[in-house]
Protein 1
Amino acid sequence: MSVTMLRRRASRPLVQELLAPGISWPQRSCRRASSTADAQPDAAARSPKAPLRREDRDFLDSALRVNQAGELAATLIYKAQTPLLIRAHPHLSSLMRHMYDQEAGHFSTFNALLAKHRVRPSALYPVWQLAATFLGWSTAMMGREAAMACTEAVETEIGEHYNGQVRQLLEMTREMEARGEGVSEEIRHLMDTVRRIRDEELEHLDHAVENDAKKANGHEILTSVIRGGCKTAIWISERV
Amino acid sequence: MPITRVCTPRLRLLTSVRYCPISRGRPYHSYEHESDPPPFNATEEAVLAAALRQVPEHGFTDASLSLGAREAGYLDITVNLFPRGSFDLVNYHLVTRRLALKKALDAQAAKDDGGSFKGQGVGTKVKFLTLERLMANRPIIHRWQEALAIMAQPSCISTSIAELARLSDEIWILAGDAGVDSSWYTKRASLSVIYSSTGENLAHCTAPKPEAMLMSGLLELFMTQDQSTDFADTQKFLDRRLEDVRIVGSGISNLKGYLDFTAHSFINVLRSKGVRI
């Protein structure tokens, strides 16, 4: 019985990830670490690693590009919001600082990954810069609640987007293992990075809701417009 | 009987040869997974390498290809592997010389053991690599105008331009450039333009194929006309073009920095006056 228990427990994280990637994060990091440690000698035995398939490379290419563009936009939104918000509400200063610092960290993470893996940045880079600054500034002009509603909408969309990527990465590694190829450390590392960043983005979402994002005037319209914009921007920067 | 014995394995090999067009751009460069299979398989490699050795004498022509096939031990009909004929030969030259740049850079870094080259900036390395690539045309420089003309043919232009883009991407990456903002595009575009540089040198050149000059490689074309020892004029020409781009590039970034600073100061002044923006 204990064996079946163990087996069930071992098979759980993968199933959970596929069905509901958002659930039960706290235990994951240690479980993850032990599983990579187990897989290490196995993967080393199978090296040299088979070349990545064309579609996997295309996916990684567009995933890194869209993530960089997204984090660029996020840093600029917070940067544009901060001065207006903390003048009216000085107590938000530390929260805005914290969120901006995290976004800046994400941005430099993806910048380094793009340069390392020879991925081109989005061709509409200057467009995203302008659009994000405008979005941050205009929502901050509308007041604290609207600014938080903007954060809420953006982070919801980004969280879903990262979840989709984690799902696809898991799918990819599972297929690799099914084909009997080792999963490289670089893919595992990317998956861990995307997971960590997603968790931090969702933490921002919580902060926004705590700060009365739902009380913004025309909350429904505002968030659905922003979420629609985010979706479009993601769709575009995956392609160009 | 001896003939069939000689030919059968070769012919069997030929049927397994698959002609593959140039792959698209190479997205997501992996360090742990094996890299792509080489761009040319063993047969293509053997034939094209032998054919390239014929180029100084016979030019970028079908004759070189069939001579190369014969030299590599294949039948003349092997040339059918290369439906684009002489352009496949040109393309082989372009691709292999591009891939050879990494070795050239490593060799240069190994040569000066003081590590002074490794410490050099991106600009120096870009210059070194561009020159290195130009000098790789040296053995066939008197035939290069033919190649330029072939590259400018309507059916080959897109491949030629894509290869030019891959070349400038390779040079920036090997030089260690890690910029991934909008300058990623301008850097690659300006290096491509330098490599196929336009401008005053058009007047000095008396090239037989004007469309070739326009499309692919004025700097290269300049080199084909260069009579100075060791292509000193070409080196000077390259230096001037790179310097121009550096000046324009730093001018643009200075202007951007200035406008950014001014806009921020302006907004901050308004905010300090109590304007709610």
Protein 2
Amino acid sequence: MSDDIKVDLELDLKGLLCPLPMVRVSQNITNVPVGGVIRAVATDPGAMADIPAWAQSTGNEVLSAGKEGSEFVFLVKRIK
Amino acid sequence: MDSQQITTLTGVLDKKMNRQLKQYLDICARCAICKDACHQYVATGDFTYLPARRAELIRQIYKKYFTKAGEFVPALYEARDPDENLLDELYESTYACTGCRRCMYYCPFSIDTAWILSVAKAILIAAGRGNEMLGQLADASLFKSDNFEMFRDVIVSGFKDIEAELKELTGDPSAEIPVDKQGADILYVALAGAHSILPAAAIFHEAGASWTLSMFESANYGFFLGDVEKARKIADRFMDEAVRLGVKEVVITECGHAYRVANIFHEAWSGTKHPFKVRHILEVIDEYIKDGRLKVSRCIDVPVSYHDPCQVGRNGGIFEQPRDIVRALATDFRDMTPNREQQWCCGGGGGIVAISEMDAFRLKSGKKKVEQIKATGAKIVASPCENCRLQMEGLNETEDLGVRIAAIMDLVMECMDLPGRKQAAEGA
Amino acid sequence: MDTYLQITTVVGVYVAGVVFVAGMGWRIYQWATTPKSPVRLGMFPKPKTRGGRIMKMLKDTLIAPHSARIEPRMWLFAMMFHVAALAAFVGHLRLIQEYPVLPSLLGAEGMNAFAGWAGGIAGTLMMVAVLYWIARRTFGPFKQLSVPEDYLLLVLLLGVIIMGNHMRFIGHVHATDYREWFQSLLAFKPVIPDSIRFSNVGWSLGTHMLFVNALLIYFPFSKLVHTIGSFSANLVRSE
């Protein structure tokens, strides 16, 4: 996970069940400027497919998605 | 609004027209008996949410463009164009509707307001006013299946994580979560979340069932959005999988709308006849317990109540199995009043939980459910629908109900003799 | 007076009859030729057999037990109106032909007295129900739901009922005279008997029929088509 990416918004999605992590990311994407980045932490493994699928179908970008211990961490960049 | 757009929108109504819809639009007497049936109208007293009013907006378009009387004397029916004002109100009342059909239950003519509103949704989508969030969720589901190879590994590795938990829980190193298993009896269609997979896996393992897990989630945001084409495609994903694997039955997880979509809508949408049964997981669990295939103890000694999700109960026909399961697990079962087909909607259905601008309204609309839960004095409220549980958890928090909202599968798992449960609980 | 009666009790009746029959025929044709939804819209619990479904439909349509549970007062007035309207309709069949058994049992005087009582009660109940509906619509919390159609129908009904009651309570004309008039219409040799023309209720028959004609003409284009549509809509409930 690169540390040089500036995170505009942190989202704690721990404990939320799918598809809520995806819903919360989507609801919050307009709270960061275009080009801004959301860092989201979820615990539901379903998010590993859901959030990238949401990003691709809405034209946003997942910079990274990875497992850290029992948590799933996403960096999502708002493209439009 | 220009005439071109009016033609587009009335064209949608024309395309969606069928006998039932026509009759509903022709016969409503605006008697407003439905007002006391709707949890949203009862909780807010807001005219917008009166069921007959919601349908009336579509009726106003219908009268103007589909009836001679309304064309010549529009004032008599307040018939009008689908203009911005109408669409504004229609958006609000349509996407707020949870589709519980309690108004239909009490209507002297059994007018299915939710069905009228499904057409309203198609009109809103054609006007570019479909709910954005529901649209995104539906598109994400379809994106996953259209680009399945891109997600396959992630999905399967997620299943493997859950499988590791299952092995620990059951104390059986050979316990597995099968996927793509040709010739299995059951295709189990879960939600994207692990919470809907692990308990079912433990139950199937314990009952010695021949099953396989679907690669796709059963949740169907195309249905909530009101886009029949997308909804069908989302359901096609696991229906095609079921055909391909040659299963005997498709079993839907503890989810309301997914069960109704699979059991009632999909055959009509796709024009096919399923070569398999469609059942709700609770029907299966109830059968396992009654057949003695699944051993459970009566391990819950606090009062437990059960909330009928509208799409499982009134609209799905499952009333007794969940109650029987809860009675097998708990010493003190307390039904809500009213219950079964008269059960109050909790306020969380129809996709409204995903629409954040309706959050405050949604929680307010749960007033009746709060009263019902309080009256039972239950400490646990079980319900086999994700949206119901989300809503009731919200109510639990804002209204300080002090209850635990639980999925029935979770309660079943707690009352099963699972060697690894203690360690798993400590580890979590 | 003669022109008024000529218009409302002769010409108007023919026009209304034609519009009503053709309009309802058109309405049913439209319903029947519009394809059914492929999706089953029924709700649970539902009867398993066809007979059971039909019985449930009849019960739901004729007794509306669910509506009774949720708004008993409205149900009471609605039942009152519909049962009284049915009774009034049956009573009006005397215009076509005298009942077979009843008059010989009661005698001519007794029959008129019975009709007077039955019709009077039915007319009063209907009037009370319509007044209740007008009040409920006008002062209820959901009055915004009402559209002009609702009031128009209630006013037409009220007109029909009040004039009917006027003839019933004030008039001294009995069924035989009215039957003479009505049968002449059916035979397409319309005559308005002097016994009606020169009575104290000639103009009220004219006005009664004015409202009846207007109601019948508007009927097929109004929500009153629920008289037929409610049966099939309630059957869908069990599909």
